[in-house]
Amino acid sequence: xxxxxxxxxxxADGELVVGELADRxxxxxxxxxxxxxxQRLDAELWPHIAAxxxxxxxxxxxxxxxxxxxxxxxxxxxxxxxxARQAGRLEQGAVVALANAxxxxxx
Length: 107
Fold this sequence. Notes:
Elements: E1 8-9, E2 17-18, H1 20-24, H2 26-54, H3 59-65, H4 70-86, H5 92-103
Antiparallel strand pairs: 1-2
């Protein structure tokens, strides 16, 4: 039997696993489904944020449009660009350009 604290688990790949509690509590299943939708939307958002920044949009304007703080934008762009680079979806020059866009060029 699954304990309440482990009924919903998030493995390394980030997918939400719905356990026994979801079967007993309809609200838990809805939470799991909504969380999965949010995760999918979040994954779709960052490439658009990167494209806007690489196209010259101001970081503050991008953060405001995405309902993020500037700190969250910087952290998110850093994490997303590193993962995209590691997966071969982003060139190193784009990673540097994104860092320059959100942090300013290094002196």
